[in-house]
Write a structure and sequence with these properties.
The structure is a single chain. This protein has about 260 residues and is of the alpha/beta class. Helix content is about 35%, strand content about 15%. It is built from 10 helices and 8 strands. Helix 7 links the parallel strand 4 and strand 5. Helix 1 crosses helix 2, helix 2 runs antiparallel to helix 8 and helix 6 packs parallel to helix 7. The protein is globular, with a radius of gyration of 17 Å. Bound molecules: S-adenosylmethionine. The site of S-adenosylmethionine has 20 residues, from helix 1 and helix 3. S-adenosylmethionine binds next to helix 1 and helix 3.
Length: about 260
């Protein structure tokens, strides 16, 4: 890791909290404390993280199956098992994250895999970084998996996502998952408040607000569902979990 990377290990960061919930080791005491505070309120949070990660794997498998051979994975997280370029070994992948740790741990493969630091709140910069490797005149699989819940309502995540989607050609796909308040509203409000006090934005949204990310696009079956119900396959370990434990909705849609 470069000495120049400013990690602020005294503060929790979403990528490192998520890494802890997935059983990884790229996290620090502040991240573990934030994750444990969330687990105290919602003991299912590790299931949420694992279910989401399995959704990502199935989505990338699905998209390669329909011919997508380039991915823009925004809010990609710390490299982990079943990262996009491993699930799609013949595809080009640009990983974008605002956390410098993600970019410093990622290993570029010239011409195929590229890690870039950029912020979803600046979609034009995200697109510029994507264009360093991807051909944005050809269909792209845009992955926004478990990232929009780190934007406040005032930051208008819907507009940021729309800007990215509109920049992609017809036949591209948007895959998005995000925490929902539908099943355990009181618990998620408590986690949001605790995260906010620690400096981490977390916004679990009601289903209809999540559905709005897909407005104007053609939803792929089965539409917006708790992620463990989205085309489960025989590798899944989370498909029997109750919806409220998973508490994250996801869908895939094609751009017309
Ligand atoms: C919960 S993790 C999800 C990781 C991965 N997408 C997955 O689903 O397995 C959220 C990631 O989004 C990143 N993130 C949060 N806000 C972001 C923003 N405004 N721009 C870019 N990345 C962001 C965090 O650094 C973290 O790596």
């Amino acid at each position: 890791m470069s000495d120049a990377v400013e990690l602020r290990t005294d503060r929790p960061h979403p990528a490192r909290i998520y890494n802890y919930l997935l059983g990884g080791e790229d996290n620090f005491a502040a991240d573990r404390a934030a994750a444990e505070a969330g687990l105290a309120v919602n003991p299912g949070a590790k299931v949420t993280a694992r279910s989401n990660r399995e959704f990502l794997r199935r989505v990338v498998t699905f998209l390669t199956g329909v011919g997508i051979d380039q991915f823009l994975d925004v809010g990609s997280g710390i490299p982990a098992a079943d990262s996009t370029h491993l699930v799609a070994p013949d595809a080009s992948v640009v990983y974008v994250d605002y956390d410098p740790l993600v970019v410093s741990l990622g290993a570029d493969e010239p011409g195929r895999v590229h890690y870039a630091q950029a912020d979803l709140r600046e979609p034009n910069r995200v697109l510029a970084r994507a264009g360093e490797l991807l051909d944005l005149t050809r269909p792209v699989g845009l992955l926004l998996v478990a990232v929009t819940h780190h934007l406040q309502d005032a930051e208008d995540p819907h507009a940021r996502v729309r800007r990215l989607v509109e920049a992609l050609p017809a036949g591209s796909y948007l895959a998005l998952s995000q925490l929902t308040s539908d099943f355990l509203p009181d618990e998620w409000r408590a986690i949001e408040r605790d995260s906010g006090r620690r400096g981490v934005v977390l916004r679990a949204r009601p289903g209809p607000e999540i559905a709005r990310f897909f407005e104007g696009l053609d939803l792929v079956e089965p539409g917006l569902t708790p992620v463990h119900r989205w085309r489960p396959d025989d590798r899944d370990r989370q498909s029997d979990q109750p919806d409220e434990v998973v508490s994250i909705l996801g869908a895939v849609a094609r751009t017309p």
